[in-house]
Amino acid sequence: MVTLGFMSLSTSHEQGYAAELASRTEAHQIQFVRFTPFDLSPDSMLINALSYHTPSGQWNDSTIEIPEFIYDRCFYGRDSLSKKAKPIVDWLKKYPKTTFLGYGLADKWTIQNYLQSHADLKAYLPDTSLVSGFSHIADLLMKEKACVLKPVSGGGGRGVILLEFRDKTTKATYHFGKNKQIKRFASLNALELWTKKVLLHSYMIQPYLSIQDKNGYPCDIRILLQKTKNGKWASVGKAVRKGYQYGFLSNLNGGAEILKFDEWFRSLPKMQQALLLDDIDTISTHVPQVLEEKHGPLFELGLDICLANDGKVWLFDVNSKPGRKSILSAEPNTKDFLYESPFNYCTYLMTPEAGGVIQHD
Predict the structure, then answer these.
(1) How far is the CA of 89 from the CAs of 5, 126, 152, in angstroms?
(2) Residues 96-116 as b or e (16 or more Cβ within 10 Å = b)
(3) pLDDT on residue 356
(4) Confidence band (pLDDT; 50, 70, 90) for 50?
(5) Domain housing 12
(6) 72 with 174, same domain?
(7) Is the pLDDT of residue 188 over 50?
(8) Which InterPro entries does the annotation name (predicted)?
(9) In a domain, 66, yes or no
(10) pLDDT digit string (tens) for 221-277?
(11) Separation CA 327–CA 337 (nearest Å)
């Protein structure tokens, strides 16, 4: 029997997701274990894992060989734990006896450049550049009167800053958890001093794009794509995330509300509906193709698509380790597909079509 290892930086991370997956292992004849990168013993090449025992529904300590398949759910920050884990994970990716279901994407700037190179996707990407210094920020701010700063690494809206210039005053808006923070600066010199304290790592800059609905609520569309049991990409589900009124983010970390896509979609004018569906299809088709060609094999992707006030559709973000909360909330009927898909994809990877050499006992 082959083993699928669910790898995270801590076994307390995504416990509910792992437990739901584990409860379905018996039907697929695939052993399911949990472990962290730090559970690998370099001397014995064995892993101290938590193994799921189906009859009892319990997790048991066990020592196993490195799993044939690894589902990487490690989310890296700038903390010491992440820095220690990353080289271990990089080594595991090169280990010849294991296959990762998908490889985590590179930073947002690299992904931006990958997608920018594709003619059909370029039109959906906001004009983005890497911040080269404060003069770069000031020039765009004076020109556009509003711009957005995004960290090259990270997700969930963390570190994103909206700058607005009005009446000789600059306002900076950002989130700290679910709380909105606002700072005002009477001069560009004051703003420069603040950015030097805040922008400690690489940032990208974009013009501000208004994505609020007619009542001032920012919305985006989360689309979850996964590989099917035939190894083909499919759209699992769609959900709309609605942020707070007059805000600029619609991330769940910022307290966004989850809406059913179909209900939100019906509120749009008929002509806009047709155009939006066509744009979603174009983006959903080409993004996985481009990223796998440039980056390597993937299993799942979360696409964040925004409909601006002027009707323009933008691709705001791409995530190779997406969450499931918004999709499960908006489309509960996707539950079985979502929790079966890692096992179905493992089974596909063992087939001759996928070039698999691992066989069931």
Answers:
(1) 13, 32, 21
(2) eebbbbbbbbbebbebbebbe
(3) 65
(4) very high
(5) 3-100
(6) no
(7) yes
(8) YheC/D (IPR026838)
(9) yes
(10) 999 999 999 999 999 999 999 988 877 777 666 668 999 999 999 999 999 999 999
(11) 12
* CA 247/CA 277 separation, integer angstroms: 25
| CATH classification of the domain holding 120 | 3.30.470.20
DSSP letters, 164-210, are EEETTEEEEEEEETTEEEEEEESSHHHHHHHHHHH--S-EEEEE---
As a whole number of angstroms, the distance between CA 171 and CA 66 comes to 51
Q: Which of 316, 334, 314 is nearest to 324 (CA)?
A: 334
Give the single-character DSSP code of 324. Answer: S
| 95 in a structural domain | yes
201, with CB counted inside 10 A (0-12, 13-18, 19+), is exposed
Half-sphere exposure of 53 (CA within 13 A, CB side): 7
Where residue 314 falls (left for φ over 0; alpha for ψ -120 to 50; beta otherwise) is beta
Q: Are residues 218 and 281 in the same domain?
A: yes
In a domain, 337, yes or no: no
CATH of the domain at 9: 3.40.50.20
Is pLDDT of 19 > 80?
yes
Q: Is residue 344 part of a domain?
A: no
- pTM, entire model: 0.92
Q: Write a three-state SS string for 20-56.
A: HHHCCHHHHCCEEEEECHHHEECCCCEEEEEEEECCC
Spatial distance between the Cα atoms of 345 and 361, rounded to a whole number of angstroms: 18
Q: Does residue 262 sit in the same domain as residue 118?
A: yes
Give the number of domains in the chain.
3
Q: Are residues 222 and 203 in the same domain?
A: no
**Crossing angle of helices 335-349 and 15-22, rounded to 10°:** 70
Task: Among 102-111, 115-124, 210-219, name the one with the lowest average pLDDT.
Answer: 210-219
Residues 238 and 283 in one domain: yes
Tell me, yes or no, whether 33 and 93 share the same domain.
yes
pLDDT confidence bin for 177, thresholds 50/70/90: low
Q: Are residues 198 and 243 in the same domain?
A: no
